[in-house]
Amino acid sequence: MERTLVLVKPDGVQRGLIGEIIARLERRGLKLVAAKFLSVPKDLAEVHYAVHKGKSFYDGLIRYITSAPVMAMVWEGENAIAAVRQTMGATRPVEAAPGSIRHDFALEVGRNLTHASDSPETALSEIAIWFKPEELVNWQRPIDDWVFGKN
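User: That's the sequence. What structure does it adopt?
Assistant: Structure tokens below.
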């Protein structure tokens, strides 16, 4: 099973879309294994966005992610990274596929509602930034075989 980090960013929180985003990921068949609602401290934001340090948009990212609460989550499932990114849609909302979260609820790249890890390596490092190992819950759902089962 693969795990991935998902953030409902400040615009998604302020617009009341946490439940919608969780519902879509659950309906997709993914399993929530960790969640926390927090105001992001500047040092956490700087670690999360370290890959963008020195770029023209870096300071704006830090101001934005620390401007209001964020819902941080870890989701699990077969191909979870690709499934989450597909569900969220393209980073630029006007390029996102119809039916994706960004297509349905966003217009601007600077207000694209969510963050999702883009690779297994990134997912591992991002999850470690946002969650302690003991905050990840290993659990089984009765439906897991119906979602992930092999014939």
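The chain has eight helices and four strands.
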